[in-house]
Amino acid sequence: MKVLLVGGGGREHAIAWAVKKSPRCEKLYAAPGNAGIAELAECVDISVMDADSLVSFAKEKEIDFCIVAPDDPLAAGVADAFLDAGIKTFGPRKNAAIIEASKAFSKDLMKKYNIPCAASETFDDADKALDYLKTLEAPYVLKADGLALGKGVLICMTFEEAEAGIKEIMVDKKFGDAGDRVVIEEFMTGREVSVLCFSDGKTILPMTSAQDHKRAGDGDTGLNTGGMGTFSPSPFYTDEIAKFCEENVYQRTISAMASEGREFKGVLFCGLMLTEKGPRVLEFNARFGDPEAQVVIPRMKNDMLDVMEACVDGTLDKINLEFDDGAAVCVMLASDGYPVSYKKGFEITGLEKFDEDQGYFAFHSGTKFAEKEELVNGMVSKKKVVVTNGGRVLGVTARGANLKEARANAYKATEWVSFENKYMRNDIGKAIDDE
Description:
Mean pLDDT: 94
Number of strands: 22
Strand content: 25-35%
Distance between the termini: 46 Å
Structural class: alpha+beta
Number of helices: 13
């Protein structure tokens, strides 16, 4: 089977690793890929948003199966373009990906179908949003309606902060058109858990749980990021909670989307808050999480292509989804200054020390190749090196028999990697040690 993977981040590297392991994968292409994915696939310089070029390439190479992994192309209908061209494709159509692309849509869906979530109201007028804020008590949760790279959520501890947040989102347009509408949501407290579910439009198979760390700094301080690290499984996601969520969140959501004429085939990401009153949905995404994929996928026992194809074919009920009994922890190595401003282009060393057979992975998020000049026997020669090319650079992931062991292994592995302006949180999964 010839496979085309659309995307170029850490999530896509983890997917590429799993797909490449399948004996059914004859050839793997990635558009555009990155320096890590290039070790597994032939990378082609096509933008994830260029549907026409992607479809043309797929036809030229006689691609059998496409995987559209990131949020933006799914929201823009890139999966539709492949499917309409008769190419088997994993990833929801645009009319289903709206569950992530519009927070207002997802909130309305949850209200209509009684899916447990935080109370909320949606506004397209900044003044009316401010008037509503005055009826609430702090803290406040503000969400830009559209896609904002995981950074469009503001937690405001005072009215003044919330007022400034409304201006930032709706007036100053910090997140562009994503801020045309704002969702003001009830502030909830509890443990956060992420559960990714495979779906074929009717059957849903939940994967093992994970927990992400969004804030840039230790102790959950600083700005929201795309994710600074994660661990799997969550010790707080009990069998009882899983049963409740499978019935009242996951299956109910997939059935609701079908009822709305928006059949969802792909991965439904469910961000949950485990409150005193029970689990509540924080958000839905229409794809693998990043960096959740980097800890969930290495623990999956199944052939990834088998499961993805079952999602497309509507035969997911024939799959017995299995994960190992151990654990995994991912620590993101970022460029200092992320998520605001940072320099890139620095050489990365130490990647050769990772041994996947021993449970150590370096999933590339923001990397590329560059040429480096060096003097050899008095002659100048050039060699290809890997350099930083983003805010989040590498997802250093390690497995272990349990969460404490996996965490210790992951932080040990972060010491193997060096690059100028390397930054990371030092408390990913620390709650494990505190319990």
